[in-house]
């Protein structure tokens, strides 16, 4: 049965984790990614094994929480979880293999970094290529505590990365929109052109691209500029 409220909205609960523990799965990891729709930078995934003995109250889809609340919850998750890990796939790889596959790679990498290793995965929406029993859940970050925890950790991590890159490319306003397609960001791309960390396969970035659509030279150009 799907956990839904009377109004038809999902309730974020730990029901699935409890059911899986009753079946003998004691290291259930929630897995989620953030940044799929961004025009800039990496897609970031997190995997989290929550402790049944140290619950974190207030877990929900990271998109439904304000930034301050996400920061507080991310710190609590990282302090109380049995294990957590993050992984990122960069823009050049996204352009090479597409965002769907890059998201799956990032999630697989995050799962592979968990110690102890999980014995079951609860994943937001899509299956991943690992030899573990798993259950993809549509809107999983709004239904399942473990997936919600992963979404929060991934979002806070990626937002911090965007703030760092905002110092390198201040004219794009990355700290405010986190690389997503806002009017401010699109105007900056039109005015200044994309950076080497923009996703050149995404519109409107492609339309204003001043780099060859050949991703190895793209990154070499960035490395050379950074060393100058």
The CATH architecture of the largest domain can be named as: 2-Layer Sandwich
Top CATH class of the largest domain: Alpha Beta
CATH topology of the largest domain: Nucleotidyltransferase, domain 5
Q: Could you give the distance between the termini?
A: 58 Å
Radius of gyration: 18 Å
Topology:
Blueprint: H1 15-22, E1 28-34, E2 43-49, H2 67-80, E3 83-89, H3 91-97, H4 99-112, E4 120-124, E5 134-137, H5 145-168, H6 174-177, H7 183-192, H8 215-227
Parallel strand pairs: 1-4, 4-5
Antiparallel strand pairs: 1-2, 2-3
Plain-language structure description:
With 228 residues, the protein is α/β, with parallel strands linked by helices. Helix content is 41%, strand content 13%. The chain has 8 helices and 5 strands, in the order αββαβααββαααα. The protein has helices at residues 15-22, 67-80, 91-97, 99-112, 145-168, 174-177, 183-192, 215-227, and strands at 28-34, 43-49, 83-89, 120-124, 134-137. A 5-stranded mixed beta sheet has the order 3-2-1-4-5, with helices on both faces. The longest helix has 24 residues, at 145-168. The relative contact order is 0.18.
Give short descriptive properties of this protein:
228 residues, alpha/beta, Nucleotidyltransferase, domain 5, five-stranded mixed beta sheet, 5 strands, elongated, disordered N terminus
């Amino acid at each position: 049965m799907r956990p839904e409220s009377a109004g038809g909205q999902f309730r974020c609960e730990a029901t699935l984790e409890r059911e899986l523990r009753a079946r003998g799965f004691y290291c259930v990891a929630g897995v989620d990614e953030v940044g799929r729709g961004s025009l800039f930078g990496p897609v970031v995934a997190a995997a989290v094994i929550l402790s049944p003995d140290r619950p974190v109250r207030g877990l929900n889809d990271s998109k439904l929480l304000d930034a301050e609340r996400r920061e507080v919850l991310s710190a609590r998750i990282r302090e109380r979880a049995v294990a957590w890990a993050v992984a990122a796939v960069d823009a050049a790889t996204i352009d090479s293999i597409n965002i769907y596959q890059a998201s799956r790679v990032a999630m697989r990498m995050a799962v592979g970094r968990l110690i102890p290793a999980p014995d079951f995965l609860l994943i937001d929406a899509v299956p991943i290529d690992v030899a573990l029993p798993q259950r993809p859940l549509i809107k999983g970050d709004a239904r399942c505590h473990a997936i919600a925890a992963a979404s929060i950790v991934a979002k806070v991590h990626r937002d911090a990365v965007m703030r760092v890159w905002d110092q390198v490319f201040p004219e794009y306003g990355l700290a405010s929109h986190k690389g997503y397609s806002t009017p401010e960001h699109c105007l900056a791309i039109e005015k200044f052109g994309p950076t080497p960390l923009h996703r050149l396969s995404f519109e409107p970035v492609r339309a204003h691209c001043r780099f060859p659509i050949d991703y190895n030279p793209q990154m070499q150009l960035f490395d050379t500029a950074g060393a100058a």
